[in-house]
Design goal:
mainly alpha, 10 helices, globular, single chain
Amino acid sequence: MKHHMKQGWRLTVKHMHILIVLFLYQLLWGFFLYRYVDSVVTPLLERYPGTLPSESASGLFWAEAQFRLLKTSLVQPYAWTLLGMLALRMIVTPLLNAGLFYSLHHVSAGGDGGSRFMQGIRRCWKRVLPLYWCETLLTLAPAWWLLPRGLDALLSSPSMLELAQTALPWGAGWLLWGVLLHLLFLALQFGAASGQSLTDSLLRAPRLLLPLAALSLVLWLIAAASGLAVSGASLLWAGLLAIMIQQLYHFGRTLLGIWSVASQFDCWQSNQPGSR
């Protein structure tokens, strides 16, 4: 594992320009999504009747909100906008993945001339994009069964403890399902970007789930420790310095994301026939 992390860091350093692109992509996406949600939610919350409203005023607010959401077309333009933003992300993200994975393959194979990010997008997007969509659909598929039951549990549970006892096992199972799918399709996308056939990737990917999961866990722990350190520093040094630390943390989180993918790619490549 240490060897894969070391090689992954070596690959990460050679893709610093891609790191900047991904950081800006995530920053802009988060900014516009936050501003849009804020523009919708804040006017609604401003109608809430004070900080300590009476029971009747609070009930009237929620009754009005329920009526406007369910009986009018108020939510439709917001829903269509969010779906459009989701569709855009579902297109852009696999394109970026294709460029990064192909570039990792090119550099790790000893290719000259640096990374091949744009070339990877042109060559591999048709193979990577369907895999990304399939992963997303399979990850969301349990929601068709789980969300109605979660709503029933929310409405029928007499306490938060009972709700947690009912919902947490299903939530944990859904999370585990999503993690396994992500690791499996990550290996398939590595194969697609490296020119491997889908059949070969499907046959070899299940054997790599455990080492890929171990690398993900180690780097997730590093990211979690970094997040706690940044939160502690922000509490100690408030003001402009805290804002700078927070922005540097987001940059570092993107760096850790590429390091994780690069380490997993090195692990995947080392388990291929004819590898070192």
